[in-house]
User: Which sequence fits this backbone?
């Protein structure tokens, strides 16, 4: 049956299977068996072709049913359990329409007893409410998804066609549309006064509240929205809740939960005031227009107060948590960098943002030797393997020609570099080290990195060498084919693709995707972060993630945590977009990238981000010449917010705000490090020690004397102690002896004086 949906132009996707009455999502508390998508990015479901549908069939995604996006349609969902059948009879009477008879396609849902889905086409440009109090038990779905006909219900029943088919939809009756039209403005109360609040204002406030909040807060927000919108704000609550896919997946029948919120007839209901309070705690400043028309005085739209940069929103946050859980020595900062690169690599061939940006990153992860960074690299490799992009990954940068050769073989070239500092150092000093053939490598890396949506040219000598390699590959495949060694046709397809790449060689490499995740130690990193390296544009294009603790406490109870099946499937879906090459002959996406759109609130916020980085660049230009870093800030914010948004299918203010906070921190840290290194090289030993100790004690950070000495092992311990005493005497830092509560040992600690 799902094929009929496909042929009628519906976007369809696989649902988790029902196996022995349980859901294959493997969550013991799942109450949506057979009713929730396999992949977290189902909202961004593309238009499949027949080959893609065949692949999904082969992988069993439609075994017990399919989901269909409601986009562009109106599905009247009648649920007998909540009085929906009686409400439906009344609805038809009130609008004077026989909705069941008039709709071109109707489906009896698996719960039976008159429950059904009626399918209509939606008029363009119309927005409707999701429910009306007068018609309990009926949902009007113009977004989200419904379970397709032919699917299996957990009760054992099936979703059966009543009449018609998906290709026969009729436009929803005018009387029904007029009844359901959304005005976008709600009448409610705030601090005892009647007010008008717009949907945009509510969405803006929600952008300041973490959807990963505790369950009680989540319910309070739902109650506040229900009260403020008179029950017509489910789509707002639902869209915001999807910002935490893990919690959203665990939510028990969220639509039923929403309807239950309207049964709260307390004399002290939860109102929009609760929403204002929670948003204010998250950085929002009251004074929006719905509060009497006052100006938003004092509100910083880019406030990042309380932002947890070790916990990205959405699917990337889930990946970070798993990576930390799967590391005996969790390294929270470098894990964030590795997760962003891995997810960006998975979706990079398939998706782009609506500003034209792609999700490739150049990231350097800095942590001490033997402190857990190897496990982060290993987990990153597991994520690439889950996505199916391992053949396009590489462990070293050898030369410009090698990079181009990799991009001829696959559309992507994904570097996972251990000791990136050493490798970059060799490339940057190619001429001095006698490896003059590497002199152009950095320039070529930067060129390719910025041309993921265009074409990279290939010089004559390199083009001839690559053409020779491809010709040999084609000849070998054709020979094997002629010798009847290719019954499956695999070699023929390989040869045809190689011939296509050979034919295109003269035109350059189209839409190359190059990313880089490097791991190094603080010592090597310090040498790398020279002013010249920062100002030449290479470092400015990347991100630095550093874990400063050189002696992290190991997790004694660590047992390792396998990657959840749902996460592995989501990684695969992000890469494939349904265009799965089972043979993995080439990592590619031979289509135009799918576009992730930006909602209006996020678009407005991005305008503020662009202004902020411009102002920061002007400030740096007039002071120290580090403006190349700020100049790239807006681009990096776009890239990172895109990576956060792909699994949700829409870029929101939450994605932009978190990305901005991360990028701004990165800019400042890189500039400080480069300036410190510049000054450091012209300092006396005493001055160098002072600079080093100051870098170890950022505002509010407390460190023991022993750890400071360990991190300053370039010098004698006695010299470090003398410098500490000098800095205390000068009033630069403060010192206190603290008695350990358990063993009674006295520890000398230092921190920066405010």
Assistant:
């Amino acid at each position: 049956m799902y094929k009929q949906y496909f042929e009628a132009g519906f976007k369809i996707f696989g649902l988790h299977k029902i196996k022995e009455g349980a859901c294959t999502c493997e969550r013991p508390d799942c109450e949506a068996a057979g009713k929730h998508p396999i992949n977290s990015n189902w909202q961004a479901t593309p238009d499949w072709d027949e080959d893609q549908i065949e692949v999904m069939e082969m992988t069993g995604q439609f075994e017990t049913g399919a989901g269909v996006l409601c986009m562009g349609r109106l599905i009247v969902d009648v649920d007998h359990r909540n009085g929906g059948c009686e409400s439906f009879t009344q609805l038809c009477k009130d609008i004077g329409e026989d909705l069941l008879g008039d709709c071109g396609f109707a489906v009896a849902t698996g719960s039976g007893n008159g429950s059904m889905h009626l399918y209509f086409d939606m008029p363009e440009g119309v927005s409707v409410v999701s429910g009306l109090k007068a018609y309990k038990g009926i949902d009007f779905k113009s977004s989200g998804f419904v379970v397709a006909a032919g699917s299996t219900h957990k009760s054992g029943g099936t979703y059966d066609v009543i009449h018609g088919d998906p290709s026969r939809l009729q436009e929803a009756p005018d009387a029904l549309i007029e009844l359901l039209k959304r005005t976008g403005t709600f009448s409610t109360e705030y601090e005892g006064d009647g007010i008008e609040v717009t949907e945009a204002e509510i969405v803006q406030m929600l952008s300041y509240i973490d959807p990963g909040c505790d369950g009680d807060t989540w319910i309070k927000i739902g109650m506040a929205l229900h009260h403020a919108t008179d029950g017509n704000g489910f789509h707002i609550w639902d869209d915001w809740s999807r910002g935490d896919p893990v919690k959203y997946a665990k939510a028990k029948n969220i639509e039923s939960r929403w309807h239950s919120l309207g049964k709260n007839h307390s004399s002290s209901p939860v109102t929009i005031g609760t929403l204002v309070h929670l948003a204010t705690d998250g950085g929002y400043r009251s004074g929006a227009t719905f509060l009497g028309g006052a100006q938003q005085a004092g509100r910083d739209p880019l406030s990042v107060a309380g932002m947890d940069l070790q916990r990205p929103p959405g699917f990337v946050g889930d990946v970070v948590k798993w990576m930390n859980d799967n590391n005996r020595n969790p390294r929270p900062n470098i894990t964030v960098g590795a997760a962003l690169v891995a997810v960006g690599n998975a979706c990079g061939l398939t998706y782009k943002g609506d500003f034209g940006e792609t999700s490739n990153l150049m990231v350097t992860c800095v942590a001490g030797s033997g402190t857990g960074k190897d496990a982060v690299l290993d987990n990153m490799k597991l994520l690439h393997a889950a996505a199916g992009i391992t053949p396009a990954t590489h462990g070293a940068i050898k030369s410009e020609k090698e990079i181009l050769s990799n991009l001829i073989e696959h559309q992507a070239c994904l570097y996972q570099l251990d000791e990136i500092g050493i490798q970059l150092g060799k490339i940057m000093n190619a001429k001095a080290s006698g490896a003059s053939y590497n002199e152009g490598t950095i320039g070529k890396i930067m060129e390719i990195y910025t041309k993921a949506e265009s074409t990279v040219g290939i010089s004559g000598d390199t083009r001839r060498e690559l053409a020779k390699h491809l010709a040999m590959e084609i000849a070998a495949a054709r020979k094997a084919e002629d010798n009847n060694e290719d019954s499956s046709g695999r070699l023929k397809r390989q040869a045809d693709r190689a011939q296509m790449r050979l034919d295109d060689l003269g035109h350059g490499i189209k839409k190359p995707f190059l990313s880089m995740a490097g791991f190094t130690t603080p010592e090597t990193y310090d040498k790398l972060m020279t002013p010249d390296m920062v100002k030449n544009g290479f470092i400015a294009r990347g991100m630095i993630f550093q874990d400063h603790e050189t002696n992290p406490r190991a997790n004694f109870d660590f047992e390792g945590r396998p990657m959840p099946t749902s996460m592995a499937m989501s990684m695969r879906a992000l890469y494939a977009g349904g265009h799965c090459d089972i043979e993995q002959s080439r990592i590619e996406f031979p289509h135009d990238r799918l576009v992730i759109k930006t909602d209006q609130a996020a678009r407005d916020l991005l305008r503020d981000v662009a202004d902020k980085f411009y102002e920061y660049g002007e400030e740096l230009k007039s002071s120290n010449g580090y403006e190349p870093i700020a100049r790239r800030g807006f681009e990096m914010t776009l890239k990172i917010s895109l990576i956060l948004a792909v699994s949700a299918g829409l870029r929101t203010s939450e994605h932009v705000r978190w990305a901005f906070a991360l990028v701004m921190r990165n800019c400042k840290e890189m500039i400080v490090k480069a300036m410190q290194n510049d000054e450091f090289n012209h300092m006396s030993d005493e001055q160098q020690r002072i600079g080093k100790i100051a870098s170890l004690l950022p505002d509010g950070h407390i460190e023991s004397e022993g750890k400071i000495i360990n991190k300053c092992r370039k010098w004698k311990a006695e010299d470090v102690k003398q410098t500490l005493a000098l800095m205390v005497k000068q009033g630069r830092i403060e010192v206190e002896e603290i008695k350990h509560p358990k063993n009674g040992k006295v520890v000398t600690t230092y921190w920066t004086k405010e």
User: Anything to note?
Assistant: The first strand starts at residue 12 and ends at 14. The first helix runs from residue 2 to 7. The radius of gyration is 29 Å.
